[in-house]
């Protein structure tokens, strides 16, 4: 019988963090899940640590890649192996609070919430020092509100690790062929592909429920993408969303398109300006 939830953990050389990552899942009172781990040809003890944990836990499935295929194809390997109705992406250097999946499951069981998007507040764990939780100004966001806040990231979390999403929506909105544009390479750098799973699901479902309790902890360290790519994160996420809007035939009023374009133009990034111009012209 398929589990309700598939927890997907793509990993590469995370021997310092992978044990806590997996342990944070196994400590949950909620138990109707599988853990799919795809190791992208790690050269450290990551696989050995996973195998030691896996020996006593039948819910863990380890996929070992013979060579490094890059981060986004490794994500897709996890997704292809998932059998649950819902998906949670958990990056292998992060971890979750022991109440996370229980809170989500309780939300799902409430009348009218079955299949809806669920998001929690997040914390950053900077070398063991937990930063104050980021609180969101509302308990829900609509697709239209997200578009209005296009340049105000993080109006909602951009990482799918903060969400539990319907598996069908994740598969529909897994975009691994976003073309590079100048210095922007969403697939190669693995920035923006993640957010489009969130944005696409939100467009389909209409709203997302935001739980104010911080239950996902993102680590900041010298190998994390939030540190390595700090100067390009914002630009990549905006470009990915603009690309999605252009591809998905999403109806956006003329005035809103023009307002977005003027804001993007002020950022003075050629690739963003080009994408913004195309979004405006698509109106005609």
- Can you tell me the CATH architecture of the domain at 1-93? Alpha-Beta Complex
Low-confidence stretches: none
The CATH class name of the domain at 1-93 reads Alpha Beta
Mean pLDDT, to the nearest integer, reads 85
What does this structure look like?
This protein has 284 residues and is of the alpha/beta class. It has a domain at 1-93: Spore Coat Polysaccharide Biosynthesis Protein SpsA, Chain A (Alpha-Beta Complex). It has helices at 18-26, 46-54, 71-81, 100-109, 143-148, 167-172, 186-189, 193-205, 225-228, 233-248, 254-266, 270-281, and strands spanning 5-11, 33-39, 60-64, 86-89, 95-96, 117-126, 129-130, 140-142, 163-166, 207-220. Strands 1, 2, 3, 4, 5, 6, 7, 8, 9 and 10 form a ten-stranded mixed sheet that branches. Strand 2, helix 2 (46-54) and strand 3 (60-64) form a beta-alpha-beta unit. The termini are far apart. 38% of the residues are buried. The model has no long low-confidence stretch (mean pLDDT 85).
Short description:
This protein is of the alpha/beta class and 284 residues long. The protein has helices spanning 18-26, 46-54, 71-81, 100-109, 143-148, 167-172, 186-189, 193-205, 225-228, 233-248, 254-266, 270-281, and strands spanning 5-11, 33-39, 60-64, 86-89, 95-96, 117-126, 129-130, 140-142, 163-166, 207-220. It has a domain at 1-93: Spore Coat Polysaccharide Biosynthesis Protein SpsA, Chain A (Alpha-Beta Complex), CATH 3.90.550.10.
């Amino acid at each position: 019988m398929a589990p309700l939830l598939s927890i997907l953990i793509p990993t590469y050389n995370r021997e310092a963090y992978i044990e806590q990552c997996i342990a944070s899942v196994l400590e949950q009172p909620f138990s109707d899940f599988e853990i799919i781990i795809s190791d992208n040809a790690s050269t450290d003890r990551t696989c050995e640590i996973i195998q030691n944990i896996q020996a006593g836990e039948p819910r863990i499935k380890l996929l070992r890649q013979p060579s490094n295929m890059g981060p986004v194809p490794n994500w897709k390997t996890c997704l292809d192996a998932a059998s649950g109705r819902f998906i949670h992406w958990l990056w292998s250097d992060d971890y979750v609070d022991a109440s996370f999946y229980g809170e989500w499951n309780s939300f799902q069981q409430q009348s009218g919430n079955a299949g809806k998007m669920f998001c929690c507040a997040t914390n950053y764990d900077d070398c063991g020092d937990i930063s104050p939780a980021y609180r969101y100004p509302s308990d829900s966001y609509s697709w239209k509100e997200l578009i209005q806040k296009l340049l105000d990231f993080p109006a909602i979390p951009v990482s799918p690790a903060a969400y539990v999403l319907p598996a069908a929506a994740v598969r529909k909105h897994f975009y691994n062929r976003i073309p590079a544009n100048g210095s922007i390479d969403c697939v190669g750098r693995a920035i923006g592909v993640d957010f489009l799973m969130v944005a696409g699901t939100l467009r389909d479902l209409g709203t997302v429920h935001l739980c104010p309790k911080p239950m996902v902890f993102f680590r900041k360290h010298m190998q994390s993408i939030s540190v390595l790519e700090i100067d390009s994160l914002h630009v990549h996420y905006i470009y990915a969303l603009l690309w999605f809007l252009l591809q998905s035939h999403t109806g956006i009023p003329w005035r809103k398109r023009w307002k977005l374009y003027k804001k993007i133009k002020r950022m003075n990034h050629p690739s963003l300006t080009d994408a913004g111009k195309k979004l405006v012209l698509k109106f005609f």
